[in-house]
Structure prediction request, 537 residues.
Amino acid sequence: MDANIRNVFVGRSLCVIDDLSIAERTYLFSKVKELKTAIENGDQTAMDRFRINDKDFGIYEVFLEDSTRTRESFRNAANFHHAKVSELSADSSSFNKGESFADTFNTLAGYSNTIFIIRSKVEGVCRWLEDEGSAFAQRNRLWRKPAFINAGDGKHEHPTQELLDEFTFLEDNGWSTDNLHIALVGDLFHGRTVHSKADGLKLFKHVKVDLIAPTELAMPDSYVEKMRENGFSLRMFSSIDEYVGQEDIARKWYFTRPQLERMGDRILQRQGELRSAITFRKDFIDRMPEGTKFYHPLPRHKEHPTIPTFLDDTSFNGWERQSINGMYVRIVLLSLIGGKIGDEFVPPATMETGDANDEEYIISVPVSGDAAKAVKNYSEGVHPIRDGIVIDHICRGDSPSEIRNHMRLISSVLNLDEAKGGEWVSTGKTPGSFKGIIFRPGARELTRKELKRLAAVAPGCTLNIIKDGKVAAKYRTHMPPRIYNFDDLSCTNEACISHPSQSEGVPALFYRTADNRFACAYCGKSHSFKEIWKSKN
Ligand code: CP
Prediction:
């Protein structure tokens, strides 16, 4: 290997499918194809090229939710590598004494373990451990930094399932990534395997997705939005009956199980009716285009399978090969992270776009020549303000009551509650529209941190600095590309590792999305700028 080329896969974590680029996934799939052929032909020499073959290389499985396929295919994959394979017995571990995820995994990393495979109902665990594990490894001068593989976290993502699904679609697409038309059927609300598809299917150039689910099990808006942003063409149907009643039927159907364990009582009471909307029936067969294949991450329910067992011995059956592919994909993933293969992969050159996190979110606006006139709009009771700050254009277009509520939040977030001044709702430029204005007389500079908080809690407003009765400076706020390091931020998803109810001590961190919302860095939940503040929740 050229000494200048570094193996980009070594020590990598896989928390969400997008942690591997399209080019990296394409390379991984080429290796899976090679390995699968080697195993099917019993070619030991070719298989050995994938083996980590180090009995001191620790691969640890920690399954805090039930699993057969993911746990056992990873265990078999790890054994293929002739590595040290361990499993934490969660029932008798110190989790039950209130130990945190960080302390537990740091302890295990200290015992010469390198790759952790984690399934948990707590969302975003691997992303948190990735940071914590690196810091622990550095503090303790560990030889290898631990890597974390998400084996399914709550309703969030299941990236290794996504890899094996994509590999199976490629097999059935003759390895072409040009087009994919797929129907996603079932519990799209709770199903993490279909949530991973919102980014996963970017592997294909032209993607058409048909979402088939009754309203109660519909794909969450944030994933629908992400699919649209990724350029997928989308259609929605409330049942298979409705879907097969039209002409444009996909040749690939991906079923997901109704996740009863994650449903509330209200939905559970209607499970029979919901299930029938997403269960395939014999009388649909004649409507299926030639070459249709069904897939399923499995397990199927033994009493109520949404793919009935009469289809097992038919050409529709793509799910058995899909499940078998799971072990091949996971062998290759471990091989890459363990550094056994991947040296020859050269990432495609990318355009240097600069660090979006440094992007300015407070933009200075020129003050008009007649600044003194402008200040007359902002009064301290009956007098115009001489010195102070005025935050204008708050929540333009919202209703007066929404604007008032949000101004209370802004005042609290900026620590302005104890200062004199006031808030009012005024009419906007267009008839019938409103905006909010907060004014605080008295000289006061906002710090850089306060400006960032203002931009995050009131994007699109203007901040006027009044001095000697004139507008001395004027700024327009934009949503910051990321927001963190503030104690009063919180993700609203109770299942997220960063939610205060999890007591894991994980500080909230949000990234701005393409549709100007804040996505939690751990669980991905999308929030409006009004929702991320604790005092709001
Ligand atoms: N597909 C899948 O994740 O199955 P298990 O729950 O059995 O691991």
Q: What stands out?
A: The pocket of phosphoric acid mono(formamide)ester is lined by residues 67-70, 152, 161, 297-299 (CB under 6 Å).
